[in-house]
Amino acid sequence: MVISAFLLSYVPIVNWPFSWMMTFFHEISHGFAALITGGAIESIQLHLRGSGLCTTRGGSGFIISLAGYLGAVIWGMLIYLMADKLNKRHTDEMALFMAGVIFFSAVFLARDLMTLLIMTTLIAVLLTVMKMQNNSFIKLALKFIGIYILLDAIKAPLNLIDGRHFGDGARLADTTGIPELIWVAVWFLAGLFGLYTLWKLTNKEKPDINEHELPHSGIMK
After folding, report:
1. pTM
2. Residue 74 and residue 96: Cα distance in Å, rounded?
3. Does any domain span residue 185?
4. Are 109 and 31 in contact (CB under 8 A)?
5. What is the domain extent for residue 156?
6. Could you tell me the CA-to-CA distances from 77 to 27, 141, 147, 150, 211 in Å, in that order?
7. pLDDT tens track for 119-129
8. What residues pair up with 40 in beta bridges, in sequence order?
9. 218 domain-assigned
10. In a domain, 73, yes or no
11. DSSP string, 115-142
């Protein structure tokens, strides 16, 4: 699944909905960090090619800047783990909750047509997944979304190493005096740790199970 998500991330246009999903959860993590630290969310913008912007007011600038990539890691892990463990009813509720968060953001935080179109597309994707009758496929779809978000949260910080001094890493560097490269490393390692944790949690060694089947006797009772 990780390999599939990695390869898909380099397929133009086809990868857009998944990149939009990661960008949304990155930006909403900034917003939640603002709310938790006493601030407010002014707006969220999502762009066609996968970038985005969350405008906040007040709150802790340090925590808000730090929360984007870390939040995406946490969202990716939670989506995967919940999809892996839940039954049909609960996976439906999980997809509906995710769609509800995006719908709320579209109604109250979107300020441009492109953002509205992208959020509407994401809601449609999640509702389509929820309407599927095959629970195994629903689980697989949600788990893939979680893996894609997590994997993109590992890769995306590396794009900040471009010499432009722009973005979350630059803001943290200006706030703390710690070089931007250190913050990129923190996010990158956090993503790898999240992926490793998922692997450990979902690949625990299971006890051997001995099955004893009664051979068919050919006698019907």
Report:
1. 0.87
2. 19
3. yes
4. yes
5. 16-199
6. 17, 14, 7, 7, 34
7. 999 999 988 88
8. 57
9. no
10. yes
11. HHHHHHHHHHHHHHHHH-S-HHHHHHHH
